[in-house]
Specification:
Blueprint: E1 4-6, H1 10-15, H2 25-30, E2 33-34, H3 37-89, E3 98-99, E4 105-106, H4 108-127, H5 130-147, E5 148-149, H6 153-178, H7 182-188, H8 194-201, E6 220-224, E7 231-235, H9 237-262, H10 274-278, H11 281-303, H12 310-328, H13 331-335, H14 342-345, E8 348-350
Parallel strand pairs: 2-5
Antiparallel strand pairs: 1-8, 3-4, 6-7
Helix pairs in contact: 3-4, 3-5, 3-6, 3-7, 4-5, 5-9, 6-9, 6-12, 9-11, 11-12
Length: 351
């Protein structure tokens, strides 16, 4: 969430920050990674390299990759559970931090959320159930959206356009070069269970750790069909990248609303109706995401083949957004550093 607070209330918020745990506005703001134009251009290239490594060397790195994914999922889901744990532990215990030596200091809510997250990951490793994998994937999505930010519409267009080309190439054209659909193979290939590998390495016997299933890694959400014969998949990149765009337009909606209130409700351009001015960029982009996802699902059913979801999501989110920004007269402001304003930067704190 993005909240605008007057500096008069900042001291009070700082005094009460210990009651909110370590994920308060200050620490969250310091840990946010803002993507610039260079990173947006090179992200599809880095993703392509990672995809090729997984395609060619999956058997060699699958255990390491599974462990790293499990650790990241644990941290992400602990972050997701933290507000609930803060609410549960607030009446029972003070929010004083407990020291664990070199590991750091943590509140009771943080320890509870981390313990629940570790338990969930262990159950997933033991069972390999798709519902638990989806839960961990959603935790990864929320954490990435919370700690990564798009600063402008220019960076958003560069990032989503590059990932659109990346998605289309690896789904539709990789088979002509590598004799296999690289994206589908990497996404659907299960990994050896670390417990099974550990039991074989330590020679713990034929019945120890051998009945655990292979793991489908939480880099996607899976949805079983009505008959249960197959699963539909949606990569977390198809959720996170449009989600970053949604966060950007939501921040801009709040910024513009505050700016309009400061200017005593100054009207928009004369050629735009009042009804159009009331339509938020967030709702426009959210509806576009829904329509794009629905179109991708229908296309997958019609062609009975994997579809690059960003092929549908990017046009249905970016084109209506660009059109509305042009009609409202905000396109130039949104395109480059829309939140850097002398009038607002000195009066508001974003948390």
């Amino acid at each position: 969430r993005s909240l605008n607070m007057d500096f008069e209330n900042q001291d009070k918020e700082k005094d009460n920050s210990s009651a909110a745990g370590s994920f308060n506005g200050n620490s969250a703001n310091n840990s946010i990674q803002t993507i610039d134009s260079t990173q947006a251009l090179f992200l599809p290239i880095g993703a392509s390299v990672s995809l090729l490594v997984m395609f060619f060397f999956f058997d060699s790195v699958q255990v390491v990759f599974t462990i790293c994914t499990a650790v990241l999922a644990t941290i992400a889901f602990a972050f997701l559970l933290l507000p609930m744990c803060q609410y549960l532990t607030r009446p029972c215990s003070p929010q004083n931090k407990i020291s664990f030596g070199c590991c750091g200091r943590f509140t009771a809510a943080e320890l509870l959320s981390f313990s629940l997250s570790v338990m969930l990951v262990l159950i997933w490793v033991l069972t390999g159930h798709w519902l638990l994998m989806d839960a961990l994937a959603m935790g990864l999505c929320v954490a990435m959206i919370a700690f990564v930010r798009l600063p402008s519409l220019k960076v958003s267009c560069l990032l989503l356009s590059g990932l659109l080309i990346y998605d289309v190439f690896w789904v539709f054209f990789s088979a002509y070069i590598f004799n296999s659909n690289v994206m589908v193979k990497v996404a659907t290939q299960p990994a050896d269970n670390p417990l099974d590998v550990l039991s074989r390495k330590l020679h713990l016997g034929p019945n120890v750790g051998r009945d655990v299933p292979r793991l489908s890694l939480p880099g996607k959400l899976v949805f079983p069909s009505s008959t249960g014969s197959h699963f539909s998949m949606l990569g977390i990149g198809d959720i996170v990248m449009p989600g970053l765009l949604l966060c950007f337009v939501l921040r801009y909606d709040n910024y513009k609303k505050q700016a309009n209130s400061d200017s005593c409700g100054a009207p928009g351009p004369g050629n735009i109706s009042g009804r159009m001015q009331k339509v938020s960029y967030f709702h426009c982009t959210l509806i576009g995401y829904f329509v794009g996802l629905l179109t991708a699902t229908v296309a997958s059913r019609i062609h009975r083949a994997a579809q690059p979801a960003l092929l549908y999501l990017v046009p249905f989110t970016l084109l209506p957004l660009l059109t509305m920004a042009y009609l409202k007269g905000d396109l130039r402001r949104m395109w480059s550093e829309p939140f850097h304003s002398k009038s607002s930067s000195s009066r508001f704190l974003e948390v």
